Amino acid sequence: MTDGTETDHGIVMDVNDERNDILHNKIDSANDDVDLLFRTVRDAGRWAFGTVFVEVWALIENGTQLFRPNGGWWLDESYHMPSQCKDTTMDDFIPAAPLAMGEGLAGVLWAESVQVNPAVAMITNEDNRRIVWREVNSIANDPDQPYNPRLRAIANAGFGLAAAVPFNIRGTMGIVVYMARETCNKTKLKSPSNERYLKSAATL
Fold first, then answer.
1. Which of 19, 37, 41, 144 is the most buried (most CB within 10 A)?
2. Tens-place pLDDT, residues 90-114
3. What is the helix (H) or strand (E) element at residue 113, kind and residue range?
4. HSE on the CB side for 152, CA within 13 Å?
5. Alpha-carbon distance 66 to 174, whole Å?
6. Which residues are 99's β-sheet partners?
7. Contacts (Cβ under 8 Å, ≥6 apart) of 135
């Protein structure tokens, strides 16, 4: 039998159409997943005090790098983000490329805030553990920190503070990175109620 032809039994099977339907269903499903992730991340940022930028970074299976999945970010519409970090048509566009441990903002926050037990590959994120907010400029200007153009652009954009909340959802591990303005009310940003919200939002 050949694609789209009649068989010896007179049954017409358009295999190409069937394959196209399967492919379109997979694409639709993937798009639905991306949209769901974006809406979840957006809601996490919108209802948190002081947060203007949120990213999700997941650990690849071999545990050597973090990657940002499609749809895994949200930016407050009132905040200016450098075009080189969001406009894919620009010659100097800087993609959210995979990061090694200790590389870039997410890599540094992962290394500092997540405790990994290699024997059982578990993340410990106790409820009573405080969220550590770091100055983005301090990380970007650290002489021991490998130069990362995206980290530099984020620092230049005025994202003053950043914190990471680890997650382990059905075996997928990673961190949610929250960023805040340098001028935000730090007392409210670091309040127990806001930290509880940030932790709960990271595990949804």
1. 41
2. 778 888 999 998 999 999 999 887 6
3. helix 104-113
4. 9
5. 7
6. 66
7. 160, 161
